[in-house]
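Re: that backbone. Tokens:
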């Protein structure tokens, strides 16, 4: 079951690569950077904004 991400936190987060806003994907519990084509995991409610941990959306 995915958890909701705090909207106030989401409003402050940006992609570490492009510095553009991220969007929340509740189905996969990921933060999506459309600009970079990456999906960053959220583990135990904590965003992991580390590029090597991100999933490439083109896969």
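Recovered sequence:
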């Amino acid at each position: 079951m995915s958890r909701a991400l705090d909207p106030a936190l989401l409003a402050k987060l940006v992609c570490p690569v492009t510095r553009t806003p991220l969007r929340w994907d509740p189905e996969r519990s990921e933060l999506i950077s459309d600009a970079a084509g990456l999906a960053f995991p959220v583990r135990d409610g904590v965003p992991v904004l580390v590029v090597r941990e991100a999933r490439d959306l083109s896969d």
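Strands lie at 23-25, 30-33, 38-43, 46-47, 55-56. DSSP finds one helix and five strands in the chain.
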